[in-house]
Inverse folding.
């Protein structure tokens, strides 16, 4: 199992200063990457990422987003990402669902809209 775990980490080009470290001693970004590789390791078909870059620094966020990109390109796995960071959503998602007040207000295909369109849906200023 250890060999398979190391292979999964290497597959996503994740860097860890010490592969023998416990999760408790890892940075927030490293913990996120471990959680994502765990999903791939167990062969799940859906990986739910709730605020995957929240409370991370710029470099750690960049590393996590790069791993998310690799997941998208290398796995037969769907990713559902919940985030308040439109820049990060825009970078890694093909489809954007906008929730406001607990209701789905937009189901958008990224290639068909602009960031401004998404913001309009988020703020409630969108008009057809």
């Amino acid at each position: 199992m250890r060999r398979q775990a190391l292979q999964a980490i290497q597959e996503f080009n994740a860097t860890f200063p010490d592969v023998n470290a416990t999760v408790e001693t890892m940075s927030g970004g490293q913990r996120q990457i471990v959680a994502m590789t765990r999903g791939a390791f167990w062969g799940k078909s859906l990986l739910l990422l709730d605020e995957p870059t929240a409370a991370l620094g710029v470099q750690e966020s960049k590393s996590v987003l790069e791993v998310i990109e690799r997941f998208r390109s290398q796995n037969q796995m769907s990713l559902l990402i919940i985030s308040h960071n439109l820049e990060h959503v825009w970078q890694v998602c093909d489809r954007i669902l906008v929730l406001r007040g607990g209701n789905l207000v937009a189901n958008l295909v990224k290639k068909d809209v602009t960031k401004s369109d998404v913001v309009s849906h988020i703020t409630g200023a969108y008009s057809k």
About this structure: The chain is about 45% helix and 20% strand. The mean pLDDT is 82. The radius of gyration is 16 Å. The chain has two domains: 2-84, 94-128.
